[in-house]
Amino acid sequence: xxxxxxxxxxxxxxxxxxxxxxxxxxxxxxxxxxxxxxxxxxxxxxxxxxxxxxxxxxxxxxxxxxxxxxxxxxxxxxxxxxxxxxxxxxxxxxxxxxxxxxxxxxxxxxxxxxxxxxxxxxxxxxxxxxxxxxxxxxxxxxxxxxxxxxxxxxxxxxxxxxxxxxxxxxxxxxxxxxxxxxxxxxxxxxxx
Length: 192
Hints:
By secondary structure, the protein is an alpha+beta fold.
Protein backbone atom coordinates (compact mmCIF):
# COMPACT_ATOMS: atom_id res chain seq x y z
CA UNK A 1 0.00 0.00 0.00
CA UNK A 2 2.80 2.44 0.88
CA UNK A 3 4.35 1.93 -2.57
CA UNK A 4 1.50 3.89 -4.19
CA UNK A 5 2.05 6.76 -1.75
CA UNK A 6 5.80 6.57 -2.34
CA UNK A 7 5.29 6.93 -6.10
CA UNK A 8 3.00 9.91 -5.48
CA UNK A 9 5.66 11.60 -3.31
CA UNK A 10 8.34 11.01 -5.92
CA UNK A 11 6.18 12.39 -8.74
CA UNK A 12 4.65 15.35 -6.89
CA UNK A 13 7.50 16.38 -4.58
CA UNK A 14 10.62 14.72 -5.97
CA UNK A 15 11.52 13.10 -2.66
CA UNK A 16 14.67 10.96 -2.47
CA UNK A 17 15.06 7.58 -0.73
CA UNK A 18 16.07 9.10 2.61
CA UNK A 19 13.11 11.50 2.60
CA UNK A 20 10.75 8.67 1.61
CA UNK A 21 12.11 6.62 4.53
CA UNK A 22 11.32 9.50 6.92
CA UNK A 23 7.74 9.64 5.62
CA UNK A 24 7.38 5.86 5.79
CA UNK A 25 8.51 5.86 9.44
CA UNK A 26 5.50 7.96 10.50
CA UNK A 27 2.92 6.59 8.05
CA UNK A 28 0.15 4.25 9.20
CA UNK A 29 -1.70 2.05 6.73
CA UNK A 30 -5.44 1.72 7.31
CA UNK A 31 -8.24 -0.09 5.52
CA UNK A 32 -11.87 0.98 5.70
CA UNK A 33 -14.85 -1.08 4.63
CA UNK A 34 -17.63 0.61 2.69
CA UNK A 35 -19.67 2.83 5.08
CA UNK A 36 -17.00 2.62 7.81
CA UNK A 37 -16.09 5.92 9.50
CA UNK A 38 -12.67 7.51 9.46
CA UNK A 39 -13.96 10.44 11.55
CA UNK A 40 -17.25 11.00 13.35
CA UNK A 41 -18.84 14.27 14.40
CA UNK A 42 -17.61 15.23 17.87
CA UNK A 43 -14.22 13.51 17.52
CA UNK A 44 -11.04 15.52 16.97
CA UNK A 45 -9.37 14.96 13.60
CA UNK A 46 -5.71 14.13 14.31
CA UNK A 47 -4.54 12.66 10.98
CA UNK A 48 -3.86 13.76 7.45
CA UNK A 49 -5.24 11.05 5.21
CA UNK A 50 -3.98 10.07 1.76
CA UNK A 51 -6.31 7.86 -0.30
CA UNK A 52 -4.42 4.97 -1.87
CA UNK A 53 -7.56 3.19 -3.09
CA UNK A 54 -11.28 3.85 -2.77
CA UNK A 55 -13.53 6.82 -2.25
CA UNK A 56 -14.26 8.89 0.88
CA UNK A 57 -16.74 11.65 1.61
CA UNK A 58 -16.68 14.54 4.08
CA UNK A 59 -20.15 15.64 5.15
CA UNK A 60 -22.17 17.15 7.93
CA UNK A 61 -25.61 16.19 9.13
CA UNK A 62 -28.15 19.01 9.49
CA UNK A 63 -30.60 19.33 12.37
CA UNK A 64 -33.30 17.64 10.28
CA UNK A 65 -30.98 14.69 9.54
CA UNK A 66 -30.13 15.81 6.01
CA UNK A 67 -26.59 15.02 4.89
CA UNK A 68 -24.69 17.92 3.30
CA UNK A 69 -21.75 16.77 1.14
CA UNK A 70 -18.66 18.97 1.48
CA UNK A 71 -15.95 16.97 -0.31
CA UNK A 72 -15.12 13.69 -1.94
CA UNK A 73 -11.68 12.09 -2.21
CA UNK A 74 -10.49 9.27 -4.46
CA UNK A 75 -7.12 7.76 -5.28
CA UNK A 76 -4.15 10.13 -4.84
CA UNK A 77 -6.27 12.77 -3.07
CA UNK A 78 -6.02 13.93 0.54
CA UNK A 79 -8.86 14.02 3.06
CA UNK A 80 -9.27 15.42 6.55
CA UNK A 81 -11.42 17.88 8.44
CA UNK A 82 -9.08 20.87 8.24
CA UNK A 83 -10.83 22.97 10.90
CA UNK A 84 -10.68 20.18 13.47
CA UNK A 85 -7.17 19.12 12.44
CA UNK A 86 -5.67 22.63 12.50
CA UNK A 87 -7.36 23.79 15.71
CA UNK A 88 -7.63 20.58 17.72
CA UNK A 89 -11.38 21.04 18.15
CA UNK A 90 -14.20 18.49 17.89
CA UNK A 91 -15.32 18.00 14.31
CA UNK A 92 -18.72 19.11 13.09
CA UNK A 93 -18.34 16.67 10.20
CA UNK A 94 -18.07 13.00 9.36
CA UNK A 95 -15.73 11.19 7.01
CA UNK A 96 -16.65 7.73 5.82
CA UNK A 97 -15.90 5.35 2.97
CA UNK A 98 -18.18 5.12 -0.06
CA UNK A 99 -16.14 2.12 -1.23
CA UNK A 100 -13.74 -0.28 0.44
CA UNK A 101 -10.70 1.96 0.84
CA UNK A 102 -6.99 1.85 1.62
CA UNK A 103 -5.43 4.86 3.31
CA UNK A 104 -2.15 6.25 4.57
CA UNK A 105 -2.50 8.26 7.79
CA UNK A 106 0.07 10.72 9.13
CA UNK A 107 -0.55 12.47 12.44
CA UNK A 108 -0.69 16.24 12.30
CA UNK A 109 2.36 16.50 14.58
CA UNK A 110 4.41 14.24 12.29
CA UNK A 111 3.05 15.97 9.18
CA UNK A 112 4.21 19.37 10.41
CA UNK A 113 7.60 17.95 11.44
CA UNK A 114 8.06 16.37 8.00
CA UNK A 115 7.34 19.70 6.32
CA UNK A 116 9.88 21.45 8.53
CA UNK A 117 12.61 18.90 7.77
CA UNK A 118 11.83 18.19 4.08
CA UNK A 119 11.52 21.47 2.13
CA UNK A 120 10.33 19.68 -1.04
CA UNK A 121 7.43 18.20 0.93
CA UNK A 122 6.58 21.62 2.38
CA UNK A 123 6.54 23.07 -1.15
CA UNK A 124 4.22 20.29 -2.32
CA UNK A 125 1.86 20.89 0.61
CA UNK A 126 1.80 24.64 -0.10
CA UNK A 127 0.90 23.92 -3.73
CA UNK A 128 -1.87 21.56 -2.62
CA UNK A 129 -3.24 24.17 -0.19
CA UNK A 130 -3.25 26.82 -2.92
CA UNK A 131 -5.09 24.51 -5.33
CA UNK A 132 -7.56 23.53 -2.63
CA UNK A 133 -8.28 27.19 -1.88
CA UNK A 134 -8.78 27.90 -5.58
CA UNK A 135 -11.15 24.93 -5.89
CA UNK A 136 -13.12 26.21 -2.87
CA UNK A 137 -13.44 29.63 -4.48
CA UNK A 138 -14.65 28.09 -7.76
CA UNK A 139 -17.20 26.02 -5.83
CA UNK A 140 -18.51 29.12 -4.03
CA UNK A 141 -18.85 30.96 -7.33
CA UNK A 142 -20.69 28.05 -8.92
CA UNK A 143 -23.03 27.69 -5.93
CA UNK A 144 -24.02 31.35 -5.94
CA UNK A 145 -24.11 32.06 -9.65
CA UNK A 146 -24.57 28.88 -11.72
CA UNK A 147 -27.87 27.34 -12.77
CA UNK A 148 -28.54 23.70 -11.87
CA UNK A 149 -27.53 22.72 -15.41
CA UNK A 150 -24.26 24.66 -15.16
CA UNK A 151 -23.48 23.15 -11.75
CA UNK A 152 -24.04 19.65 -13.14
CA UNK A 153 -21.90 20.29 -16.23
CA UNK A 154 -19.14 21.86 -14.11
CA UNK A 155 -19.11 18.84 -11.77
CA UNK A 156 -18.87 16.38 -14.67
CA UNK A 157 -16.10 18.40 -16.31
CA UNK A 158 -14.16 18.89 -13.07
CA UNK A 159 -14.54 15.35 -11.68
CA UNK A 160 -15.12 13.01 -14.64
CA UNK A 161 -13.29 10.15 -12.93
CA UNK A 162 -15.50 10.14 -9.84
CA UNK A 163 -18.92 11.09 -11.22
CA UNK A 164 -20.05 7.47 -11.69
CA UNK A 165 -18.63 6.33 -8.34
CA UNK A 166 -20.86 8.56 -6.20
CA UNK A 167 -24.62 8.04 -5.67
CA UNK A 168 -26.78 10.69 -7.35
CA UNK A 169 -28.33 11.91 -4.10
CA UNK A 170 -24.83 12.73 -2.79
CA UNK A 171 -23.94 14.58 -5.98
CA UNK A 172 -27.18 16.54 -5.66
CA UNK A 173 -26.31 17.43 -2.06
CA UNK A 174 -22.79 18.50 -3.09
CA UNK A 175 -24.25 20.71 -5.83
CA UNK A 176 -26.86 22.18 -3.50
CA UNK A 177 -29.82 21.02 -5.58
CA UNK A 178 -32.58 18.49 -4.98
CA UNK A 179 -32.30 14.95 -6.28
CA UNK A 180 -35.36 15.58 -8.44
CA UNK A 181 -33.69 18.60 -10.03
CA UNK A 182 -30.52 16.60 -10.63
CA UNK A 183 -32.55 13.80 -12.28
CA UNK A 184 -34.29 16.34 -14.53
CA UNK A 185 -31.00 17.99 -15.48
CA UNK A 186 -29.30 14.66 -16.05
CA UNK A 187 -32.14 13.43 -18.29
CA UNK A 188 -31.92 16.66 -20.26
CA UNK A 189 -28.18 16.12 -20.84
CA UNK A 190 -28.71 12.45 -21.78
CA UNK A 191 -31.27 13.38 -24.46
CA UNK A 192 -29.28 16.23 -26.01
